[in-house]
Each structure stands twice: as structure tokens, then as C-alpha cells.
From TrEMBL:
It holds the Pfam family DNA_pol3_delta2. Residues 285-297 have a biased composition (Basic and acidic residues). It comes from Paenarthrobacter nitroguajacolicus. PANTHER family: DNA POLYMERASE III SUBUNIT DELTA, REPLICATION FACTOR C / DNA POLYMERASE III GAMMA-TAU SUBUNIT. This is DNA polymerase III subunit delta.
């Protein structure tokens, strides 16, 4: 199995990266992978890193997916390849400085020292400036790979020094093929999950594997059908935020407790009594990090929920404009057609704009999520 197999519908990108990995053309010290969520930009960077350090002597076979280097890079355990992603709101300056220090080391076993920053859009300007000199004047055997939704999400001083790699969302049929081939999902379910996820590979896999996730999504999508009056809008907002919070917290609580137990054990903390000041400060730091991670988890979960809600109005607009493309929520076709007949395309676009504004406010400002969603909900009320 080649490292390129998971890059569904990205043939031009694969060809570009293969050429660079084989040394034919275009190998530079810094790369910027961009594409919408679900396009596989981090997977593309990982595959490229594996191909660059692949142990195959024949350059045309690099990225084989079978050698020790490919296996360890895909498993994120290779000593010369560092993967950076954050579960907090932003990547900190201290973390950026650690990357710069690591980038200065020569590779120990591979041909290249590679730094993959999966959340380059989550760095503040002053944090990004810490990386600027290292990217502008890298050591000879170091390659930087930055990933972001769009070039505009990265400072111009950074992106001007990177070679761009632009990915797109693959067709839903390609995502379904991947679920069938790699995850053993039944074909009909794979098609449904890929369509509902709007070609986002990670979300499609979750929907295909988790019946509760499919049920929560359908519950979200059906909300506009009963949205009449301010009271219903407020209740809808509370429900959306509660679902997102519960889903995020369910995966965080157990993890937080395990991390605290592990930290106390590593510090040799007493089983009872007051902790020494030095230990209390480290526990406090862990708890602060966990709070930041929880905020990021809730934000991401709510953003996914609003994306599902947006698909309802996307389908309504498609119907109002003459069914030019396939619906996402085919199961609700009759209800969607009835809803579409009670409004105009202009009204639907305004409602979609309200949802997108709420998503931006939630993900980029410190606004309380409930207030942002309540404001959005009142814009969705059926007249």
C-alpha cells in the first residue's frame, strides 16, 4: 500500500509531490498545504514526508508505504519527522521556539529533518514571527511543511517563502470508495456517510462507524423544520450548544483524570495531604492546559454542528434554484421541497449567511457560544 493511497481525488497534488520527492523538480525547504477542512492537507504533508525519507533506492518507488521509514512516519514515531498539532486555541510562542530549536538539528537516520505544522492557522502573528527566520534561512537538511485552510490564514511573510500545494474536497464517490476499501464499510452506508459529511473524510468515517453520531446529525438537520417563534429559536440555541458541549466533554473528562493521575505519579506526589508548592504549580499548569483544550473541543464540536445545520439550507437553495446538483440530505427531500416553497432564494442565502457569521464569531472571538447561536437562531425563524 503506497503512502499516496489515502489522497482520494487529489491526482494533480500527488503528481506534484511525487516529482519533488523523486528529486525531479521543485524540492524546496518550505511548503504550504492549503485546502478546506476534510481535503486531507495534513495527510498530504504526512505522505510527502514519508516519500522524502523513504528507504527505497529507486526514486520512482519512494513513498512505498512498506519500508521502516514509511511505517514510522505514517505512525508519527520517526525520529527525524516532527508533527505539530494543538488541542488548545492557539500554538504558543514557547512551542514555536521549541520547533525552531529542533529544526536546527541534523537528521539522525533519514535524509531530511522535517517539521509538519498541522495548525499553522492557529498561530498569532508574534508566534508566527518566531518561525520566520528559521523558514527563511533553514539548515541545509531541514524541510518545513505548514498546513492551513487557505493562504490568507498565514502571514504573507511566511507564505511568500513557501511553495504552495492546493487541495480540494474529493468527490463523495471517492470518499465512499475509500471507506469501503480501507474501513470495510458497507457500500450503501459509505455512500450515505460520504454525502452527509460533504466529502470530509474524517467526518465521513465517524458517521459510518457511529450510529449515535448519525442520529445526532439528523436531529440537527431537522431543527429548522420546527423553528417558529423566538421561544423555539432560544430553545434551539440551547440544544445545539448543549449537544456540542456534551459531545466534547464526554471525550475530555476521562482523559483529563488520567493525565492528572499520571502527572502526580511521575512527580512522586503523596497519596494524601497537601501537595508541595512545586507540585501544585505543575498541577495548576496541567489544569490550565486542559481548560484551554476543553474550550477548543467545544468550539470545534459546535462548528461541526453548525456545518450540519448549514447543509439543510444549502439543500433548500439547491431546490429553489432548480436542483442543479445532488442534495446532501436526500432522506429529507420531501420536507426540504415543502420548506423551499415557503421562502425565496434571497431569504435562504440570508439564513446561510447568519450561520456562517455565527461560525466565524465562535471560532475567532471570545464571544459566549450560546449568545452567538441565539443571535443566529433568531435570524432563522420561519415567518
Amino acid at each position: 500500500m503506497s503512502v499516496w493511497d489515502d489522497l482520494q481525488g487529489q491526482a494533480p497534488v500527488v503528481a506534484q509531490l511525487k516529482q519533488a520527492a523523486q528529486g525531479e523538480t521543485g524540492l524546496t525547504h518550505a511548503w504550504l498545504f492549503t485546502g478546506p477542512p476534510g481535503s486531507g492537507r495534513s495527510n498530504a504533508a504526512k505522505a510527502f514526508a514519508a516519500a522524502l525519507n523513504c528507504q527505497q533506492d529507486d526514486v520512482t518507488l519512494r513513498g512505498c508505504g512498506e519500508c521502516a521509514a514509511c511505517h514510522t512516519i505514517l505512525g508519527e514515531t520517526h525520529s527525524d519527522v516532527t508533527f505539530v498539532r494543538t488541542e488548545k486555541v492557539t500554538i504558543t510562542i514557547d512551542e514555536a521556539r521549541e520547533l525552531v530549536s529542533k529544526a536546527g538539528d541534523r537528521p539522525s537516520t533519514g535524509r531530511w529533518r522535517i517539521i509538519v505544522v498541522e495548525d499553522a492557522d492557529r498561530m498569532a502573528e508574534r508566534t508566527t514571527n518566531v518561525l520566520l527566520k528559521a523558514i527563511e534561512e533553514p539548515t541545509p537538511r531541514t524541510i518545513w511543511m505548514l498546513c492551513a485552510p487557505s493562504p490568507a490564514d498565514v502571514l504573507v511573510t511566511i507564505r511568500s517563502r513557501c511553495r504552495p500545494v492546493s487541495l480540494r474536497l474529493p468527490p463523495a464517490s471517492d470518499v465512499a470508495d475509500l471507506l469501503v476499501r480501507r474501513d470495510g464499510v458497507e457500500r450503501q452506508l459509505a455512500d450515505r456517510a460520504a454525502r452527509a459529511a460533504q466529502s470530509h473524510i474524517g467526518i465521513a468515517r465517524r458517521l459510518a462507524r457511529d450510529a449515535d453520531a448519525r442520529e445526532r446529525r439528523m436531529e440537527t438537520v431537522r431543527i429548522p423544520l420546527g423553528l417558529r417563534g423566538v421561544t423555539a429559536a432560544v430553545m434551539m440555541a440551547e440544544k445545539l450548544v448543549r449537544i456540542a458541549t456534551e459531545e466534547a466533554n464526554s471525550s475530555n473528562d476521562e482523559r483529563d483524570a488520567a493525565e492528572k493521575i499520571a502527572l502526580l505519579a511521575s512527580l512522586g506526589a503523596p497519596e494524601s495531604g497537601t501537595l508541595p508548592p512545586s507540585m501544585r504549580s505543575q498541577v495548576k499548569q496541567l489544569e490550565d492546559d486542559q481548560k484551554r483544550r476543553a474550550k477548543r473541543s467545544i468550539t470545534d464540536s459546535l462548528d461541526r454542528t453548525l456545518t450540519d445545520l448549514l447543509s439543510f439550507y444549502r439543500d433548500v437553495l439547491i431546490i429553489q434554484l432548480g436542483n442543479a446538483v445532488e442534495l446532501v440530505n436526500v432522506e429529507l427531500k420531501g420536507e426540504l421541497e415543502e420548506y423551499a416553497g415557503r421562502s425565496t432564494p434571497e431569504t435562504t442565502l440570508a439564513r446561510m449567511d447568519a450561520i456562517n457569521k455565527a461560525r466565524v464569531r465562535i471560532t475567532t472571538t471570545n464571544v459566549a457560544p450560546l449568545l452567538a447561536v441565539e443571535s443566529m437562531a433568531t435570524s432563522l425563524i420561519q415567518q
